[in-house]
Predict the structure of Ribonuclease P protein component.
Amino acid sequence: MPASNKLSFRKEERLCSRKLIDKLFCGGVSRSMTAFPLRAIYLLIEEGTGGGKVQVLVSVPKKQLKLAVKRNRVKRQVREAYRRNKQILFDKLTPQKQLLIAFIWIDNQLHDSTNVQSKVVNLLNRIAERL
């Protein structure tokens, strides 16, 4: 990864493929962990698609936060925290493997960015340990 793009969050890093999302949620082999107010569901697969080594999905259910403004804020906070700390996973990931991660918001209140960032770092460290 070039040094200039080290802290970017490009399209290849976003989990958009319906096939991969179904594999992550319906496959039965994915793992889950929680660091309140976030839950991370992840799956390590053989690299086969054209996407990046790590692909991320951020979901904030309407049931948790009713207003779209609040949901968008939380998604922005999670994406920014991941973008700043994704190197934790890239250092541990083996070649020929691809990691799918879904971050799901499980609280019905907003949190400040430093708290969200510490929880994302916590989850990324725990996922990296299990790789």
Observations:
- The radius of gyration is 14 Å.
- The helical segments are 18-26, 68-85, 87-92, 113-130.
